[in-house]
């Protein structure tokens, strides 16, 4: 079994091609839309939702069967078809430096998609390196009990607060102290985080 290198990609405006227009493709495309990729779907037909995305202009639809030129300038390629011949044709046509995921042939891919649990900016990826996607989904479900909706606003607060600290605080020890303080449990459960942060800042400044 391969040892995968975990990574988060910035796909904004990157060309992503999805081969297939069914439910599996729909799930893959949802994440690509969230990542603001430039998405082209190659398929003779689309699900109702994907057709809606096309009408909105969210995705480009090539209403056809796959051919090699469909992926010539793609940064990322995903096949989502239940057809080994098509998947292997995509594999053959792909450049070795392109990112390629074959849904029905993960062993022929150079990356796999993990199961992801999200609460706003909080993203927790779970992977069994292809050993058991079902287990990965069960772990994802368990995470919802540990990291509920309250984490969405909390992580937004951390993002904004960290940005302010890095810009405004010059002393390295003070930076470290404040960045650590805002991750304490009291800030997670607080209903007045900005006020609490000002109090912490004042107390640390006056020490």
TrEMBL record:
<protein>
    <recommendedName>
        <fullName>precorrin-2 dehydrogenase</fullName>
        <ecNumber>1.3.1.76</ecNumber>
    </recommendedName>
</protein>
<dbReference type="Pfam" id="PF14824">
    <property type="entry name" value="Sirohm_synth_M"/>
</dbReference>
<dbReference type="Pfam" id="PF13241">
    <property type="entry name" value="NAD_binding_7"/>
</dbReference>
<feature type="domain" description="Siroheme synthase central">
    <location>
        <begin position="119"/>
        <end position="144"/>
    </location>
</feature>
<keyword id="KW-0627">Porphyrin biosynthesis</keyword>
<dbReference type="InterPro" id="IPR028281">
    <property type="entry name" value="Sirohaem_synthase_central"/>
</dbReference>
<keyword id="KW-0520">NAD</keyword>
<dbReference type="InterPro" id="IPR036291">
    <property type="entry name" value="NAD(P)-bd_dom_sf"/>
</dbReference>
<dbReference type="InterPro" id="IPR042518">
    <property type="entry name" value="SirC_C"/>
</dbReference>
<comment type="pathway">
    <text>Porphyrin-containing compound metabolism; siroheme biosynthesis; sirohydrochlorin from precorrin-2: step 1/1.</text>
</comment>
<dbReference type="InterPro" id="IPR028161">
    <property type="entry name" value="Met8-like"/>
</dbReference>
<dbReference type="Pfam" id="PF22440">
    <property type="entry name" value="SirC_C"/>
</dbReference>
<dbReference type="InterPro" id="IPR006367">
    <property type="entry name" value="Sirohaem_synthase_N"/>
</dbReference>
<keyword id="KW-0560">Oxidoreductase</keyword>
